[in-house]
Amino acid sequence: MKKFFEFVFVFFVGITTVFGQNQDTIDNDKSTLKKGTMFVFWGWNRAGFSNSDIRVRGNGYDFTLSNVVAHDRPSELSMAYIDPTRLSIPQFNFRLAYFIKDNLAVVIAQDHMKYVMDQDQIAKFNGHISDPAYAAMVQNGQVNLTDEQFLTFEHTDGLNYINAGLEKYKNVLSKKNFDIFWAYGGGIGALMPKSNVKLFGNERSDRYHLAGFGLDARTNINFVFWNHIMARVEGKFGYINMPDIKTTLNNKPDKASQDFVFYQVNFGIGYVFNRKLK
Fold first, then answer.
1. pTM of the model
2. Environment class of 95 (CB within 10 Å of its CB; exposed 0-12, middle 13-18, buried 19+)
């Protein structure tokens, strides 16, 4: 839980900033995203994750692998990035925003990241396993994961962070047919991963499941062309806690848990609706 408290401090500093500032006085309608404005956004991301402890529990075993290393898994450049029938294959981001006040938006989002435990690593082990074949794989308080016989563990379809947040927008440049808006805010949401886990030679568990929650702080820069076409670059920093990750099939009680800090950089395009200009 140390990662949680570290993140909460940063998170609430950001939220206090969002709500603590007075509404800017803006004379130019073009430089204001007025109440009632909406936008949709689709983009792609790269993500990173802190090391985490993974606890795995079930009938005959209860153990923790410490400081497990993981990375994201971006798709190779292909038609999947622009093919409407395959857009959900890469690591993607979706946003739907509604401005409840001038320059203040509620944003509903999905962040489809991919979390893959590095297979080529030796992890510290603490706990017990009753099966002698797998207990023998633990040597001197460590287990070598390289051969994939002990555990494969990933959220690759994906680490789905479904969240809602508030974002404060500020115009930094306004020209004919071109605006730049900077925004910052925070959010909270649920984790609905499709976790691909294979433990002790069991059939791979591969299904969507409500596994936990997340918090985030975010900032983004938005380039708006001809009042409607949006290009966006966004950074997110957050905390994820998943106490209920399914590790086996057939609704067995077996499960894993982990928490970690993540960062994400995404970019993409969008469209601004109902923009009110004189």
1. 0.87
2. buried
Q: Which residues are bridge partners to 117 per DSSP?
A: 70
Which three-class secondary structure string do you get for 11-72?
Answer: HHHHHHHHHHCCCCCCCCHHHCCCCCCEEEEEEEEEEEECCEEEEEEECCEEEEEEEECEEC
pLDDT tens, residue by residue, 8-19: 445 444 544 444
Q: How far is CA 69 from the centre of its chain?
A: 17
**Short-list 93, 61, 56, CA closest to 234:** 93
Q: What share of the chain is helix, strand, coil (3-state, %, to 5)?
A: 10, 60, 30
Phi, psi of 182 (to 5 degrees): -105, 140
Q: How far apart are CA 136 and CA 141, in angstroms?
A: 11
Query: Domains, the chain, ranges and CATH?
Result: 2-21+38-77+93-273 (2.40.160)
Confidence class of residue 3 from pLDDT cuts 50, 70 and 90? low
Show the CA angle centred on residue 148, arms to residues 142 and 154, nearest 5°: 95
DSSP 225-238: ETTTEEEEEEEEEE
